[in-house]
């Protein structure tokens, strides 16, 4: 089972949601991160900075979600969600994403399509 990590980046009571532009994940709303990291404290923070321009410090593991995504052609995966602290700055999107929104958890639930790990985590 492979493990990926995502960052919960907050501004007040809003989460940072990103929209993917191309490939099999085209249009999917997601949270920053998404890589497989040996050292999430360092590598997840670097990915979030590269993806969004947000400087974060990884704090606590908030949840681990296991999903079998065989129907999408992917093997079973685990996704670890990490709480973060961040220094607020303007979001600077990498070319890995087409858009972003600061949303409440309720608003995140309405974004479509939503990454299956994120959807499981917030429901």
Write a concise synopsis of the structure shown.
The chain is α+β, with helices and mostly antiparallel strands. It has helices at residues 40-52, 105-110, 116-122, and strands at residues 2-8, 10-11, 14-19, 29-30, 55-67, 77-87, 99-103. It has a single domain (2-122), classed as Nucleoside Triphosphate Pyrophosphohydrolase, CATH 3.90.79.
Keyphrases for this structure?
123 residues; alpha+beta; Nucleoside Triphosphate Pyrophosphohydrolase; 3 helices; 21% helix; globular
Structural write-up:
- The structure is a single chain.
- By secondary structure, the protein is α+β, with helices and mostly antiparallel strands.
- It has one domain: Nucleoside Triphosphate Pyrophosphohydrolase (Alpha-Beta Complex).
- 21% of the residues lie in helices and 37% in strands.
- Strands 2, 3, 4 and 7 form a four-stranded antiparallel sheet that branches. A three-stranded mixed sheet has the order 1-6-5.
- A hairpin with a 2-residue loop joins strand 2 and strand 3.
- The mean pLDDT is 90.
SSE layout and pairings?
Layout: E1 2-8, E2 10-11, E3 14-19, E4 29-30, H1 40-52, E5 55-67, E6 77-87, E7 99-103, H2 105-110, H3 116-122
Parallel strand pairs: 1-6
Antiparallel strand pairs: 2-3, 3-4, 3-7, 5-6
Principal-axis shape: globular
Average pLDDT: 90
CATH topology: Nucleoside Triphosphate Pyrophosphohydrolase
Poorly predicted residue ranges: none
How would a crystallographer describe the biggest sheet?
Answer: 4 strands, antiparallel
Q: How helix-rich are the residues, as a percent range?
A: 10-25%
Tally of helical segments: 3
- Number-wise, the strands total 7
Number of domain modules: 1
Fourth-level CATH superfamily: Nucleoside Triphosphate Pyrophosphohydrolase
Query: H/E series, N to C?
Result: EEEEHEEEHH
